[in-house]
Amino acid sequence: MTRLIETEGLSKKYRATPALTYINLSIEKPVCTGLVGKNGAGKTTLLSILSGSIRQSSGTVKVLGHAPQGSAIKGKVSILLQDAHFKKGLPVISQLEHFAQLQGFTKQAACDEIADLLRQLNNADYAGKNPEQLSWGQRKRLGIVQAFIGQPELVLLDEPTAGLDPLAAHDVRKFIRTYTDKSSFIISSHNLYEIEDICSDVVILDKGRLIAYTKITELAGKDNSLKISLDRAPSEELLNALSQLPEIIDLKTDSANQEKITLYFASKQADKFQLQVQTLIIDQGFSLVHLHRGKALVDGVLDLVDAES
Amino acid sequence: MNWRRIALITVFDLRCSVLRLKGLIFLLPFFLFWYLLLREFYDGIATRIQSSEVLMLLSAKFDMDLIARLLVDHPPSLSAFFIFGLYSTPFFAVLAANDSFASDLGNGYFRFLTARCQRIEIFLGRYLSTITLLAAALSVVAVAAGLISIFIEGYAFSHVLLYAIQITSVLILYTAPHLAYMTIISSMFNSAIAALFLGMLAYISIVFSIFILNILFSETNSFTYLLPSSVKASLIGDDGFAFTVAITSLPAYTLIFAWLGWGIFRKRNF
Q1: What is the spatial distance between Cα A57 and Cα B207, in angstroms, rounded to a whole number?
Q2: For residue A283, which phi and psi values (nearest 5 degrees)?
Q3: Three-state DSSP class for B52?
């Protein structure tokens, strides 16, 4: 079976500064993988190497079984990088049609493909303008359109919703989701809720090193914690009552958001325990604003990165 | 390598050159220069140049047969186009090709292309686009000079046509290595302005270095052959053998410079 991505000892240095250090990664398709890590973790560098935009300093990389620079994968892999810009002084739509033609579309088919993608992202009206006449968010959306031309086998997205307003970000996520059964994705994002929402797997990088490549469900355990938001900061009585429950292992409060509590517990009957906690809170005169069972991806990632450092 | 993609890149870049500052920075000075020069021929300067006094004056500096061939046997306006074309080529090549890669390396545009094309396709497409632009611009000037030769200077159409084709082809061939030289410069910088000024500075520095080296090692002129401008005299002259050697050396210069440019471009981080 052809692997989506396979790297062995992949390293990249910018002059003397290491950006990626000995990455061994093997991802099978079809999959939607999140790529997470702090600033400077090497996410954009990894995506750039996978797309053939930059070359590794050492090690091997194969994308869909081929070298990223090779002719065989051209048009099968697409990328949206944060610092790639359309040409100024030329309507974006004609640039998108040019990209489609480079992928093998005829002129007419290219026009139809772009029109179809624009329709799906509800932005056909401004694609005819020059990039300098568009807002950052509009250019970003059109950048996403270019990444979906010709339904590539692998789509690499670097912060696809960064800087977008919530509605636009929702549209983009919806747009990506409609393609997850047709293409494989690697999505880099600082928004871990977005990764958790869209992706099934996650690659975690820290300071250029691979910390983990795992299923999100494995990382974000569903039965060992309860995150609770109340209508106000909990009283001492409530905290004591919760602490005295026999299933409780640990109870954490958040000094920045005093109305939030995290309970870590061990119980074979998690549903029953959750109900018991809810009842206790309501009996103490508090209202539940939000309750989430299981560890969020962000906690899993932080735990791993902390453990590594 | 996919020739369809190369053709698409060439055509798209040509379109950008005509519509955007990238092309205008070359086209405006180029046509202004030729307009001012050809206007003199339109106003009848050819008759004055062909007067015996002027020819006598020029013969003190140049070979009389060559002057007669260029200014009397052939239409003077086309000959002027040829000679001034040869001398101005390095300057216009820098103007035309400074932004072959530089801006797009700086703004990340090539990242959109690398997912769709190989680097060699981008490199060749951009080079072909620049040479096509210069060839088209030179052809327009050749047509204008040809019209002046027919209607103002009174030369026969067939003569003008053959001579115009001959000198324009030579000029385009002479342009090729200069544009290839600019692929080196444009691959090194992320800004068109930097490529423009450093392209000119580097060229002037090389010419000056050759001049100094030729003085220091006066027994040999071989340093002259570091640049294609060394064959300029042979292209103008009437020595058939020297002309043939000169014309065949131009593709060799082009290949060497383009190979150096490609060496930088292929290793660049986009």
Answers
A1: 37
A2: -60, -30
A3: helix
B172, B250 contact by CB (below 8 A):
no
- Domain A3-219 class in CATH: alpha beta
For chain B, say whether A84 makes contact (Cβ under 8 Å): yes
**Residue B62: pLDDT band with limits 50, 70, 90:** low
Inter-chain residue contact A71 with B12, CB threshold 8 Å: no
Cβ contact A32:A187 at 8 Å: yes
A236 alpha carbon, distance to own chain's centre: 39
Q: What is the pLDDT of residues B10-54, one digit of tens each?
A: 999 998 888 777 778 888 999 999 999 888 777 777 666 666 666
* Alpha-carbon distances of B242 from B59, B245, B247, rounded to whole Å: 21, 5, 9
Are B254 and B173 in contact by the 8 Å Cβ rule? The answer is no
Residues in chain A with CB shorter than 8 Å from the CB of B110 are 53
* Stated pTM of the model: 0.83
pLDDT, tens digit (0-9, with 9 covering 90-100), for B89-129: 889 999 998 888 998 998 889 999 988 999 999 999 999 99
CATH 3.40.50.300 placement within chain A = 3-219
- C-alpha A51/C-alpha B49 separation (Å) is 61
- From the list A53, A70, A98, the residue facing B111 with the nearest CB is A53
- Closest by Cα among B199, B121, B191, B135 to B167: B135
- Residue B69 predicted with pLDDT over 70: yes
Domain A225-293 has CATH 3.40.50.300: no
Q: In what order do the strands lie in the sheet with A248-253?
A: A248-253, A260-265, A225-230, A288-293
Residue whose token pair is 């106000």:
A232
Residues A3, A26: contact at Cβ < 8 Å? yes
With beta carbons less than 8 A apart as the criterion, state whether A50 and A156 touch: yes
Put simply, the answer to whether B108 touches A86 (Cβ < 8 Å) is no
